[in-house]
Structures are given as structure tokens and as C-alpha cells.
Fold this protein.
Amino acid sequence: MKKLSILVMAACSTIAFAQKVSDYKYVAVPEKFETFREDYGLKNFFTKAMTGKKYIILPAIKDNWPAEAKSNFCNVVAADVLNDKNLFKNKLIVQFKDCNNTMIFESKGASKIKEFEEGLPDALKDALIKIPVSNPIALLPASNNSAQRTSAEPVVSVASTATPEASNYSNGKLDLQKIQIDSNQFILAKSGSSVPFAVFKATSKNSVFLVKMADGNTTVGYFENGNIVIDVPQTEGGFSKEVFAAK
């Protein structure tokens, strides 16, 4: 049980960073940044900067999205810019949230220029420096988007008091233990190890998961005939199908 507790703690810290902004190709931007009295050129500056980092900016109206984004909202990260100014500096915060309204990245910027027209874009430039270039993972398959969470719906916490469910899987070379953290997340770990082999986070598609591998790669996993399947990224590009059968 002690090993299991250590394993769960390790998984919790890993899951918190399971999704990166750079994993996304599409970024949705609101019609306006609501916490500012005026635009001050922020939206145009943000759009140009993110496009320069290889992201595709989507409008607020989903009807105008490309098919691969419209078919599964979890292929899109939502961006916002918040006013965080004080008496001495223009300050703001750039936030990115996934389709479950979970914060995956936040970057703060500041400028000593006190005038809004110049200071706020300067602060945004400072915040955008920390945002990585897009390096998208494989897109998720089409789903029933109406089944996805909205910001008004509760998100299940990882810190569960229930005893995690454990079961065993193997691909014939590697024996792994499946630890169910909660209804939305589980991990696979090598037997006797406290380090996750892979961390699975549920998507809006039933039995399809975003998977964070131990080497840092993010991919897709799913259940198939009672087995766990991972599309393992290959160094030369592409994916191989790794099947872990229940023992």
C-alpha cells in the first residue's frame, strides 16, 4: 500500500502537466478580451505572435472552424488575456485552457510603460516570449462534442480519498499495473516501480485517452477488446501499435 501511495502521488504531479500548449495546433481566441476597457491592439498583436509560433488561430464562432477542430473540441486550446495592472506597471496574464476548462498554461507579462496604448502590447510581448512554438500531437478522432464538459460543470479532482483500483496488463515483454486514480484518469506503471510508464487522461470520446509517456511524448491510447492500446511515437516518425492485454 505504501508503494501504491507513492505511485499515486507521482501520477498526480505528472498529470498536472500532462498536456502542453505546444501539443496543440489550434488556438481559439474570444471576440474580445473582456477584462480590458478597450482592445489597445492586443488581439491583433496576440494573433500575429501566435501565428508566428506556428499556431492556427480560430475565431470565437465555432461554425467557422475547420472540420478537424469542429469535430472534436479537445483538439483546440482556448486562449484569453487578462488585465493584471497595478499603479506602477501595465501587467497582464495569458491563459490557455483545454476542452474541460482546465488550465494548462499561464504566462505573466509586465511593462514599465504606463500608457495603455504602448504599455499593454509591451506587456503582452513579454508574456508571449514564454509560450513555446506549436509542435502538435496526433489529432483526436471525431466525437459528440455535446458530451464534453463546460466551464459550469464540475471537474473531478485527482486528489481522491478512495483507494485506487489496480489491475495488471502485459505486452509479453513488459508487465504493467493499471492504477485507477479517478473516473477520468489512470496510470500504467511497471510492477514494483513508483514511476509511471504512461499517464492516461480521458477525452470526450468514450474509451479514448490522451497519454503522457515516461519519455515526455504525448500520444493517444484506447481500450480495444478489453486490452489497452497505445499509439507509441517512433523516432523516425509515425506510430506503432502497442497492445497490453489484461492478465
Observations:
- The chain is about 15% helix and 35% strand.
- Residues 30 and 47 are 11 Å apart (CA to CA).
